[in-house]
Amino acid sequence: MKAIIPVAGVGTRLRPHTYSQPKPLIPVAGKPILGFIIDRMVKAGFTEFIFVIGYLGEKIEAFVKENYPHLTTHFVIQNKREGLGHAIYITREFIAPDEELFIVLGDTIFEADIESVKQLSTSALGLKKVDDPREFGVAEVDDDFNILRVIEKPSIPKSNLALVGLYKIKESEQLFIALEQIIKNAFKTQGEYHLTDALMLMIQQGIVFKGFKIQNWYDCGKKDILLETNAILLKKLHPPQNNSWPYQNTIIIEPVSIASNCIIKNSIIGPNVTLGENTIVNYSIVRNSIIGNDATIDDVVLHDSVIGSDTFIKGLSQSLNIGDNTEIDLSQSYD
Fold this sequence. Notes:
By secondary structure, the protein is of the alpha/beta class. It has helices at 33-43, 57-67, 84-89, 114-118, 172-184, 195-204, 223-237; strands at 2-7, 27-28, 31-32, 48-53, 72-77, 101-104, 108-111, 123-129, 137-141, 147-152, 161-169, 209-213, 216-219, 251-252, 256-258, 263-265, 268-269, 273-275, 280-282, 285-287, 289-291, 296-303, 306-307, 312-318, 321-322, 327-329. Helix 2 links the parallel strand 4 and strand 5 (72-77).
């Protein structure tokens, strides 16, 4: 069984960071979002991956090849973003007609029993109750959690069970036939070729889909959710080090993730802070924030902030959302 991970989106909701960094590579709790996804799938036994890349795709490819050289990987370029259905369709040459596949969206971190889902005798879709299902594909199910209907971003949802980006497809040949049908007939929903529409065609043809529940799911597409996810995962994945941090005249309030080669002096870091590699922090207070690699933070009070890599900030007390390769100096006053 192969895993398909679409990562061709431009991440407009996380700009300015996604101008120079693909959303799946933004760090959360010390690891890129895509790293969490690949690691979970590898743990479930997957060894062959197909990545659908586009904008800044070379960075995705470099990350995967550098960190997962033992995996069999393929990279398919989606030159024109025409929706998730189109992204899956262009991988068809890598999938045998009788081969099962697993699709995982590349911008969400999830907790689910993938091992059990792989063993199901039918196709299956990951479902999670959400407060506003109008923002998602939505599934209607019967009492046995068989899926009766799926619809993309309904204006009047009949269910609050959202499709959250995990799809086990047993009938891959029928999936690609359904995708080809909607693409050849230019059948678009909200201007895109949606995977949801192809799945609905399959259901209408009598193909059985079961729903499976997602225990935890973190959509990292917005700054506030990204920071919330960072805080949750820091508590889960980074146990306290009992004040054994080697930083001069500095207080560390855990949980935090501090990457290698960081220089921190005269500062207070935490709680809920991720610092990237080679970051320099001096005379600063940083809490509930994500700081990229090779950043310099000097004489700053930062909270609820996402700061890109190669960034220099001096003399500021604020909540920020700053992309890569930025320099800000507000230490002087201008009257």
